[in-house]
Design a protein that fits this description.
Distance between the termini: 51 Å
Structural class: alpha+beta
Helix content: 25-40%
Strand order of the largest sheet: 4-7-6-5
Shape: elongated
CATH topology of the largest domain: Ribosomal Protein L9, domain 2
CATH superfamily of the largest domain: Ribosomal protein L9, C-terminal domain
CATH class of the largest domain: Alpha Beta
CATH architecture of the largest domain: Roll
Strand content: 25-35%
Low-confidence stretches: none
Mean pLDDT: 91
Number of helices: 3
Number of domains: 2
Radius of gyration: 19 Å
Order of helices and strands: EEHEHEHEEE
Length: about 150
């Protein structure tokens, strides 16, 4: 089943993308929630016209995302966590804590746009990928330190 996404869906695609999904997922979730529309010929034409008109605005958004990535640069965040004597922390570091650390540095990035590689349950240096735009990804490094 081919659908046109009306908004970004993590793991599936971005707004105005034409995606193929299983019929049940489309019929029972995406369409009723208003997250997608059927990819009929008329809907494709409407979306392509909207994309053409929004191209300038999209380029501005992309430039803003690239500027944000440049401002973040090689920033090293320090995230405090309670830890045992062996360096194992109690709980785990989540995207919310990284988002808060970025917010403390003056960067407002939603936690949904932060991707971690695996669970972070030890003290040490790690990295996370920031999904700033469809075409702009930035890697930020952070250090988990004992509280």
């Amino acid at each position: 089943m081919e659908l046109i996404l009306k908004e970004d869906i993590k793991g599936l695609g971005y707004k105005n993308d034409i995606v193929k999904v299983r019929p049940g997922y489309g019929r029972n979730y995406l369409l009723p929630q208003g997250l997608a529309i059927l990819a009929t010929d008329s809907n494709r034409k409407v979306i392509s016209e909207n994309v053409k008109q929004a191209a300038h605005k999209a380029e501005k958004i992309k430039q803003d995302a690239m500027a944000l990535a440049a401002r973040i640069g090689d920033l090293l965040l320090e995230i405090p966590a309670k830890a045992g004597e062996t360096g194992k922390i109690f709980g785990a570091i989540t995207t919310l804590q990284i988002s808060d650390a970025l917010k403390n540095r003056g960067f407002s990035i939603d936690r949904k746009n932060i991707n971690l590689k695996g669970d972070i349950k030890m003290l040490g240096d790690y990295s996370a990928t920031l999904d700033l735009h469809k075409e702009v990804k930035h890697e930020v490094k952070f250090r988990v330190v004992a509280d």
